[in-house]
Structures are given as C-alpha cells and as structure tokens.
Amino acid sequence: MFIQMLTVIVSMTFAIRASNNMIATTLPLFSKYYFHFTQSEVGILSALLSLGTFITSGVINSRLQSNTRRRFFIISSVAYAIILPLFYFTNSLTIWIVSLLAGLSLGSIMPNIITYAGLLDDRKARERLLSIYTLALSASLVAGPAIETAVLTHFTIPYVFLFFEPFAILSAILSFFIKFPEENSKSARVSVFNNPGFKTAVINILAYNIPFSVILTFGGIYAVDYLHVSFAEVTALFSLFFTTSLLARIYLSIRPPQSVRLHAIAAISMTTIGLLAILFSNNLIIFSIALLILGFPHGLTYPLSVISISRTFKPYERNAANSIFFAIMMIIGIITPTISGFVAELIGIKYLFGTLIPVILILLILLNRYVGYVDKVVLEETRKNSLSISKDSKA
C-alpha cells in the first residue's frame, strides 16, 4: 500500500505543483510586460488566482463528504487541464476571468492529496510519506522553472502555458487513483480552530508564506527592473531558490522532525537573513545568495505545518483541517499581493521586502505559545512505546 500511495502522490503532486507554480511566477511577468499592468494590478491579479483557490478549498471542499468530494476532485482536475491552455489566448480583459477559473479548479486538488498522504495509521510511516510528498513538491518547483527557462530561451511567455499542458493532463488522469478516507458523523463536529496543532501550523505557514507571496509576485519584476536580467534568467533564479528548498525537504524525508519548535525557529531565522540580504542587495550575486538562503525555510515550513496537523488531528478530522489550512494559505495569497502591490508603488519593490521582517518576528513570538503542544504529542507517544517495550521485556 505504501508504494502504491507513494507513486500516485509523487506523480500527481509533481505535475500539479510544477504547473501551478508556473502560473504563479509567469502571470506577473505576463501581465506586467505584455499587458502593461501597474504594480497594483499585478498584485490584484495574483490575488484573484488565490481567491478562486480559497473559494473552492475553504468554502466548498471542506464541507463535502467523502464520496461527493471525490467526484468534485476529479471534475476539478479535468477542468484544470481544460483551463490551463486558455492563458495562451487571453488578452488584458480575459486574463482576469481565466485566472479566477484556474484558481477555482485548483482549490480542491492539493488539500485532498495531503489528506490521502495522511491516511497511514503508523505515525512514522505517515510523516515519512508526508515528507516525501513535500519533497515531490520541491522537486517540481526546481524542474518547473528549469523547463520555463528552456522554453523562454526559444519562445515568448504565452507559449509557456502550452508547454505545461501535459502536466495538467497527467494530473487529470491520476485523479481517478486518489483514495478518500471513510468518514462518519463525527466529521461534522471537528473543532479545527481550537486545536493548538492547527494554530501552530497556521502561524508557522504565515511566517513564511507572507514573504513567499511577495517573492513569487514581485521577485521576477524586481530582477528585471533593478538587476536588468532577461525573462529566462528570472525563471533560472527561481529554480535556484527552489533547489535549496529541495535540499531541506530531502533532509526532512530522511529524518522526520522530532521537534517542530527547533525547525520552525531555524526557518524563521533564515527567512529574516534572506530578506535582509535582498534589502541590501545591489547586484545579481547578492540577490542570488538571498534566494539560496530563502529556499531553505521554504523547504522546511510547509512540511512542519502538515506534520503539525497530522500529529494533532484524527484521520476523520484531517480533511476539514487540511482544507481550512489550505484555504488560509490562499487567503495569504489574496491579501499579501494586493497590499504589497500598493506598498511597492509607494516605497519601491526593494524596500517592500524590508517591511516584512518585523511581521515574521512577531509571528515567531506567537508561534512559541502553541508549538510545544505538537512536540508534546511525540514525547507522550515515545514514553508510551517505551513503557510498552519495558512491559513486554518483563513478560
């Protein structure tokens, strides 16, 4: 069962995340340099993509029972394969509609893949599978920009959407193989927001997804306008960023974390250093080093959040928790680009990155209030296992 789940999860995760990330990184460049959108309009367009994802994930998917949710998941996967190539044919008006439709189709896909990855009963096997799932995410984020770079070397930006269509088709096919957990009436009584593990997951992801949303939306524009690089070089820089993210997730897949607290503090510290490097960067080398540093917390943060949810929710509760968690990630993707677009127009993109540092330091303080509960779950499990082994040896 483990190998079967691993094959399906890794393949579909790779295909969906590679194409989804391509949209997130290419859409700002496409709208800015082809349709001449302002910084604010670029931010709002990126937010619209996340809004669609939020509606499907947080409002629809989280409320559906298993059988209905599976049908909705398959329909969404097929719809995404139809919508993705439409970006090639958009103009300055229709790009808003296609972006919203793409977001709506993506909203039910990733939460259900996470839930499927968390079906195993054994905690260590489950967390290893979740870590490998996030490793597949990182691998796709390295491969995706590398493919974009190759495409943009020979073609213009609109063609990128066509070259990624095979990934969307593969995802539609694989969606039929994703299994859904059995649920009962208890699912309706899940208290998600009161769970300290959920609070830990949310605060932890906020500490990184806020700066990450800014990097995705304005990092490429910053590189083009301030460092005078080509579009192909922009996607190569993103590939560099995701390479260190991949290394961090390889580490977690080999050594699933015992302490979420220690890893979360390390991630936030590296995020602060990376943002400072961007703030004081004046050439491509320093900017590249900043992206390399920021890749490590990107690799650590998301796995730590999904592990926190996995440790502190029962199997039948995880769909609601994962859906709401994913929806909150999308809210970040709605609010952050919108606000940062206006801030960038007022103070410039470079200084925009500096304004993020106090925000994540405040989140670090909040994280320390709840993260101990997640680590306590593992300590209690270890203690129970030790007592069980001790009793067996005496017997």
List the helices and strands and how they pair.
Layout: H1 2-33, H2 39-60, H3 66-83, H4 94-106, H5 109-117, H6 123-154, H7 158-163, H8 165-174, H9 196-227, H10 231-254, H11 260-279, H12 284-312, H13 318-347, H14 349-354, H15 356-394
Q: How would you summarize what this structure contains?
A:
With 395 residues, the protein is mainly α. It has helices at 2-33, 39-60, 66-83, 94-106, 109-117, 123-154, 158-163, 165-174, 196-227, 231-254, 260-279, 284-312, 318-347, 349-354, 356-394. The protein has a single domain (2-179, 190-386), classed as MFS general substrate transporter like domains (Growth Hormone, Chain: A, Up-down Bundle), CATH 1.20.1250.
What structural class do the secondary elements suggest?
mainly alpha
Mean pLDDT: 86
Silhouette: globular
Q: What fraction strand?
A: under 5%
What is the CA–CA distance across the termini? 33 Å
**E-strand count:** 0
Helix content: over 70%
Low-confidence segments, given as residue ranges, are none
Q: How would you name the oligomeric state of the polypeptide chains in this document?
A: single chain
CATH class: Mainly Alpha
CATH superfamily: MFS general substrate transporter like domains
Radius of gyration: 21 Å
Number of helices: 15
Looking at the overall shape, the CATH architecture is Up-down Bundle
Provide the domain count.
1
CATH topology: Growth Hormone, Chain: A
Element-by-element helix/strand order: HHHHHHHHHHHHHHH
Largest sheet: none
Transmembrane segments: 42-60, 72-89, 95-117, 129-147, 159-180, 201-223, 229-248, 260-279, 285-309, 321-343, 349-367
InterPro entries: MFS, MFS_dom, MFS_Exporter, MFS_trans_sf
Keywords: Membrane, Transmembrane, Transmembrane helix
GO molecular function: transmembrane transporter activity
